[in-house]
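Records of this kind hold a single protein each, on a pair of labelled lines. Below, a sample record shows both lines together.
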Amino acid sequence: MVFNGLDRQSTNILLGYHLLKYSRDLGSCRYVPFQLEQLAAEGGWYSENVRTLLENAADVWDYSPDNVSFLATSGVRAKLLTIGYHERI
């Protein structure tokens, strides 16, 4: 596990991806952003930069069915990974 770094030989799971600016350095790595923000066409975190980050990802994971639908209308295919818990852990 690496904090605030990218490994070019691995698939990088990005938490807080929306705080990054898309760059050539990021584009040269395989990455999967775990999208944990509420998204909407106006306001919030969704921007041209966020769309570029998501479009160039190996995969996109999202916690919300509403976000998955929203992203689909923007041409970004996301997989739903709901957040849960187990009472024995």
